[in-house]
Amino acid sequence: MKLKIIHTNDLHSHFETFSRAASLIKAHKDENTLILDGGDFADFRSVELQGTRGMAAIELLESVGYDALTIGNNEMFNGFDTLEHMASNTPVPFISNNLYRKDKTVANGVKPSVILKKNGLRILITGSSPDLGGFNYGLGVHITDFKNAIVEEIKRNRGNYDVCILLNHVGTLADDELANELDGVDIILSAHDHKLYPQAKVINGTVMNSAGCYGEYVGIVEVDVTKDGVKLLRGETIETGSSPIDKEVVAILKENKKKAIDVLSRSLYKLDQSLWHDVIEENPITNLIADGLLDMLKCDFGLINSGIVNAGAFDFITNKKLIEICPSPLNPTSFDIQGKHIRTAIQQSLDAGVCLADGKGPGFRGKFVGRLHVSGAEITHDGKRVSEIHIGNVPLEDEKWYSVASSDYLQRGSGYESLAQNRNEKYMAEEIRDVIRMYGDRKDFIEKAYLTRWKESSDVMV
């Protein structure tokens, strides 16, 4: 029996491109077609998703006729509650055989696998979510070993299906290994590492394909399922750039953007005092973040770069304003690091060239790296060289380990490489913009944000 599968992966909310992918999908589908997504469809950098708790993405999936998707890491990034809200409010199955709540209980709406029927075939679809290490705990997520989880689903459903599709968000290299190790999987559709296969391939009898990212390609796999197994008839990825824009997708996005802006534009509170911003000079909005991080994470001191925000906040705070001034989905993060590496980073921060460097790095959606700001610490300098650093009124010791309240951006050494020499990192589910939201209406924190932490030598002498 013939089966056609149309698949996408790693869209990351590139919805303009998806509007073309959608028209291509609709042109190629028929009554014997499954439409599947490999995860990271919903990237919460999108205003449409931020303001609708992800439901704009659900409407898009349903409008195109998706039959299932596997949960990628980006579906988790607006909090576990949002993931469960999305998964519980759609007929499109959200699949993950290895994703649980932090307490190891089952997530609402999430299915370890489903069996769908097409053209008389019983099709088992399962798939795994990626293990993000210590970051999982901060997101409120528990991830089990994906190989064991896949084997368990195959065992649990044995005898109840004719063909098994593994819709997996763990990367193509891991899936190549699975094809050589596992029996019972007929088709693997890969995601997570954005790999583009020009043509589908067969490894150890398993058909494999991956459609790149951002909706720039759509994968099509056609197979013949017989009692002897699955035979590949057609397997390719088709570029979407020349396809027309799907008007239904555009209409859904337009309506949801309007809803989202209305929700996100509602005032949360008025500011007692404006929080201005500067990339190079010490400024109150970045100090506020450093102070808030230290209060949240209870470390020896707080450390954050001014490039984490693009502008200041004036008059009042809304969620829309927070997204605009702090677009990066970066998280409050604590880690331990020796004083000598802190000293190196602080010294580099006096260099305007370092501050104005491109801030590129995982999750960063700002412009510049920016100057380091501290909380619970004081720095003395002459404009070119740092002479003293005090942590809690005690001079910094090069070999001593300090706990730092910061972000995952700095924890990775982005912008300031010496900070990557750390250990014992721990992440929180909140985002840096939430720190502004949480502390911007506290008068004591606003007043403290205006206190100077970088002292020029001449000022100290006076």
TrEMBL record:
Task: Give the UniProt keywords, A-Z.
Answer: Hydrolase, Nucleotide-binding, Signal
5'-Nucleotidase C-terminal domain mapped to chain residues: 274-416
Q: Is Zinc set as a keyword in this record?
A: no
User: What GO annotations for molecular function exist for this entry?
Assistant: hydrolase activity, acting on ester bonds; metal ion binding; nucleotide binding
GO cellular component terms given for this protein: outer membrane-bounded periplasmic space
Q: Which Gene Ontology BP terms does the record give?
A: nucleotide catabolic process
The record places domain Calcineurin-like phosphoesterase at 3-195
Q: Which InterPro entries match?
A: 5'-Nucleotdase_C, 5'-Nucleotdase_C_sf, 5'-Nucleotdase_CS, 5_nucleotidase/apyrase, Calcineurin-like_PHP, Metallo-depent_PP-like
Instruction: State the similarity comment.
Output: Belongs to the 5'-nucleotidase family.
Specify the protein name. Bifunctional metallophosphatase/5'-nucleotidase
Q: Name the species this protein comes from.
A: Rossellomorea aquimaris
